Amino acid sequence: MRPFGSKRPEVERTRVGASFQKNNVIMAQVELNKQAHLSEHFTLGELCKTSAKTQDGNIPSHVHIENLKRLCGWLEMLRSEWNKRYGEGNDPIMINSGYRSPAVNAPKN
What is the pLDDT along the chain (109 residues), one digit of tens a residue? Predict the structure, then answer.
């Protein structure tokens, strides 16, 4: 345990593909749990789907995942209201893109 007020030792972390490098040691492969439900009808994989091949794997941070959960709350309300007014009771909403990493959004040369 560190004494109160002491700083954590600096650790050099860089992204290598979908794995991390920490002090020149490649860490375990990071994968997205595509089946993780953010709400009743929406999964993390559905909101992070992309056809772009990037080194970062389009994997959101914990902060982005919390924001995606909030988004899914609104999408659930939209889905419910749509089905009350126009649908047949259980029509899905198809998500095209919910999260795009900076690498996915970067201009292609």
Answer: 445 554 544 444 444 444 545 555 554 556 778 899 999 999 999 999 998 888 888 999 999 999 999 999 999 999 999 999 998 888 998 888 899 999 999 887 7
* Residue written as token pair 């749990």: 33
- For the beta sheet containing 19-22, the strands, ordered from the edge strand earlier in sequence to the opposite edge, are 13-16, 19-22, 25-29
Distances (CA, A) of 93 to 17, 43, 74, 75: 32, 12, 12, 8
State if pTM tops 0.85. Answer: no
